[in-house]
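Lecture 7 notes: from sequence to structure.

We start with a single chain of 317 residues. Read the sequence below before looking at the structure.
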Amino acid sequence: MNKYIEGFKRYGIYAVLALLVVFFSIMSDTFLVPNNLFNVARQVSMLGIAAVGMAFVLLLGGIDLSIGSQITLVNIVAAYLMVNSGWNPIIASIVAILMSTTIGLFNGWIIANLKMPPIIVTLSMLIMIEGVAYVISKGLPIFGFPESFSYLGQGYIGVIPIPVIIMIIILLIGMYILNYSYFGRYFYAVGGNEEASNLSGINVKRVKYLVYSFSGLFAGIAGIVMLSRTNSGQVLSGKGFELDVLTACVLGGVSVTGGYGRISNVVAGVLILGVLSNGLVLMNVSQFTQMIIKGAVLMLAVAFDSIQKNKKAVTTL
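Now the structure, written as tokens:
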């Protein structure tokens, strides 16, 4: 029985994705149109980029609720530097990404050294960063970027949107780190048993610094892609984005208690959210109903993970 459950956790997510595609193809004539499929891929690109960082954090048994507000701040800071200070778009983008990486590192430092719960640390950071974004922008959108900057979020290489290419590169980097680097082994080890990892010689504090820095780095990249795509820095750009990222990771089988998950399944989780959102829009389902559905999906995914964890605990007794 356990063998079938493990098989479902590993491959069942792809069956769910296929069923959703079939369902929306039947319900809407425009769903399988190539332009719409490329639109779905472009829409989920920011989600896929940020999901790699969140997956790393969840593997440690942590959580990063500040991802959405980091994306907002990156939008505002990069936009401000380009428009109000006249900075080169590349320099402004690099500075904004370094800023979000530093925020992630600071989150990791507090969690590792002060032993504060990650949910409290990152929730507090979310509130502070949103406040900073409002102070910088005064609550107003910032626009008027150089035309070349929009190419990153709106351009194509061949027929493939550039945001999709960036997402694929980040996902491949995430897979490499988890599957082929000793850092990845440390992530799984610390998430599985932090005390045992510490006793075995792993510097748990440094692992936490690294993981939360990665979360900030990938959130920053997602923020720059989003800014380039929308051509406007707004204080609501990343609002609630962290919940979509969390849902995608948990749907992809990353355990909320740490120690288990793979990036390949997170890809399926990201695509499920993209297909679900796009399909519901094509079916004229209201935004509020979509929120109910997404919340239910997250709860079911966490419930499934909890049930499996409880079963494993019982069998080991």
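The first helix runs from residue 2 to 27. Keep this in mind for problem set 3.
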